[in-house]
Amino acid sequence: MDLIFGDFRKFYEVGDGYGLAQTLSPISPPSQPERLRNFYRSTNFQNVQKDFKYQILYDNSAPFKLPADEGNGWVEVYVAYWKAVGEIQIAEAAANSGHKASWMKVYEAWKELTNMLHRGYMNCNFGSWTIPCLYVVGKYLRVFAIKADEGAASSQAVSATFQDDFNPDSEKNEKLEDAARQLNRIFNLCLSDRASLEESRKWGIYNIINLLFKTYFKLNSISLSKNILKAIRAYRGDMPPLESFPLAHQVTFKYYVGVIYFLEENYVESEKNLTEAWTLCHKDSIRNKELILTYLIPCHLLTTHTLPTLALLSPYPRLQKLFLPLSRCIKKGDLSGFDAALIAGEDEFVKRRIYLTLERGRDVALRNLLRKVFIAGGFEDAKEPGAPQVRKTRVPVAEFGAAISIGSKETMDNDEVECLLANMIYKNLMKGYIARDRGIVVLSKGGAFPGTGV
């Protein structure tokens, strides 16, 4: 008890919100491995309220005195924390001994801590400098909700073997959905604060938004993330600019906004946000950079038709496995190879929600194949001595058809080939027109394949 409340007094005196938040952590620091165990054993259910009230309000050794309402608010918070620590100790002891841990009880106890902290800001005048406490409590609320749902799912799977009409998926994310509602309450608590910006809880808004994004993505409820963005736009005039927040908050926020635009197929906005996240991301955050590139690479493929280099992917073995086979096939115009690489990585692409976007990369592979046919056609005879050479711009449809049939390993008739060529022209991957009566494609002399230098 002395360690927890000694740190509480120390960090409260200097206004260190991040230090104060660590006194509410459900994990003992490495330097004090028995911290939580000793804290829980320092009192009991009968005396906990009285003991904590003494430590926070009446201890004469404290360097400051808290107002009664604020002090009582913190007493309620630490009583709830003590109860949650007890449930965590029980769950961890059960797991270590091979028994089933009750993470459901841990979640409910941690939810009560979240409610007490929320009440403290609403009714007990907790200072805005303490908002890192919301970060810690919100973070582990989500963690314990996931553990509780995983435990419930395993129990339901056993029950389902005896009940044919039981649907084990119906409530598999019950606690995580509840955690999302609790996090949304914290979000509104920060967003609706009317204090001046210097003393506003709005400085905690982006950390909570990022927790909500993670939760909604885990629940596969991307549409709810859009509601968060709408709320932010509505309050934008009363909000500190994003650039004023910690870089970690900025990077995470821009990453999730980029992914949301990506899933809406707004690849220009997605590329903009993901690029900003990439630029701001710490150079040693390999895992975060890998996540950003997972969506930024397909964006670049569609917006600029550029492929990732081996140097870019070298620190990320997973991304090499995902993207290098596709990149090689796109570069060579190998349509059948592209299809095979897409099928080989299908499970991973679908899991990461990038399959449909990468599938569109086949158009770029086809463009590169058609460009090879165009280049192989050579140059027209010079009309005057010394005149610069001009590539032949009239290419028989049959030549394109032969290349496509070889590249895709499928025989195609002229109508199918013309349809593919028309689509390429419509998508601005080729410039020219099809002269059906003569069976040729007339390509532009000023850049038959835009962006390729040919």
Describe this structure in words.
64% of the residues lie in helices and 2% in strands. With 454 residues, it is mostly helical. The chain folds into 3 domains: 244 residues; 101 residues, no CATH class; 58 residues, Arc Repressor Mutant, subunit A (Orthogonal Bundle), CATH 1.10.10.10. A 3-stranded antiparallel beta sheet has the order 1-3-2. Strand 2 and strand 3 form a beta hairpin. The protein is elongated. About 3% of the residues have low confidence.
Helix-strand blueprint:
Blueprint: H1 2-14, H2 17-22, H3 35-41, H4 48-58, H5 68-96, H6 103-123, H7 132-160, H8 174-191, H9 205-218, H10 222-234, H11 247-263, H12 267-280, H13 286-303, H14 310-313, H15 317-332, H16 335-344, H17 346-351, H18 355-359, H19 361-376, E1 394-396, H20 397-408, H21 414-426, E2 432-435, E3 440-443
Antiparallel strand pairs: 1-3, 2-3
Helix pairs in contact: 3-5, 4-5, 5-6, 6-7, 6-8, 7-8, 7-9, 8-9, 9-10, 9-11, 11-12, 12-13, 15-16, 15-19, 19-20
Largest beta-sheet details: 3 strands, antiparallel
Domain module tally: 3
- What is the residue-averaged pLDDT? 87
Strand order of the largest sheet: 1-3-2
Q: Treating each run of at least 4 consecutive H or I residues as one helix, how many helices?
A: 21
Tell me the number of strands. Answer: 3
Question: What level of helicity do the residues show?
Answer: 55-70%
Q: What percentage of the residues does DSSP assign to strands (E)?
A: under 5%
Q: Rg, please?
A: 30 Å
Encode the helix/strand succession as letters. Answer: HHHHHHHHHHHHHHHHHHHEHHEE
Family: Belongs to the CSN12 family.
InterPro entries: Csn12-like, PCI_dom, WH-like_DNA-bd_sf
Pfam family, one: PCI
Organism: Glarea lozoyensis (strain ATCC 20868 / MF5171)
